[in-house]
Amino acid sequence: MDDAIFQANTGTKALGFYNTGKALNSAITYVQGYIDKNHTWIGETRYFDRKVTLSGDSAAYVTYCSDESKSFLKDRKTKKVENTPTSEDSYVLYSTKLAKNTKGVWQTTDIVSNRGDKACQP
After folding, report:
1. CA atoms of 88 and 44, how far apart (whole Å)
2. Which among 18, 87, 95, 98 is least buried, having the fewest CB atoms inside 10 angstroms?
3. Are 44 and 74 in contact (CB under 8 A)?
4. How buried is 37 (Cβ within 10 angstroms: 0-12 exposed, 13-18 middle, 19+ buried)?
């Protein structure tokens, strides 16, 4: 999704390669929100506490946290950066379902995020 945000394009190769179904629809909607507001982001997002549970040979469930306390929105035209203070909402819990496609690529099929989740707080 980050690549699509940086390119301001929901049709990037990676977006459809690693996402399918509900997850692809959600990703397109998410990226389009950035595009519509003429935003990108700068800084650093840290991902941590990954947990993977396999379900047979072709399905998996993955949860992980993100720390967006050093990530900031940037207006593409004005170049202005929104330096928002760190808060509980700077931390996000993601719960995903993945399936292995016929080419052996693990694709996210469903994703739910919970901004401010206590499981991801420092």
Report:
1. 17
2. 87
3. no
4. exposed
What CA–CA distance (Å, rounded) separates 97 from 47? 17
What whole-number distance in Å separates Cα of residue 5 and Cα of residue 29? 11
Residues in Cβ contact with 23 at an 8 Å cutoff, skipping those fewer than 6 apart? 96, 97, 107, 108, 109, 110, 111
| Residue 2, both tokens | 């980050």
The residue type found at 56 is: G
Encode pLDDT of 33-73 as tens digits: 999 999 999 999 999 999 999 999 999 999 999 999 999 99
Q: What is the pTM of this model?
A: 0.90
C-alpha distances in Å from residue 44, one per residue of 38, 49, 58, 71, 80: 19, 17, 32, 5, 17
Q: Which CATH class is domain 2-79+88-120?
A: alpha beta
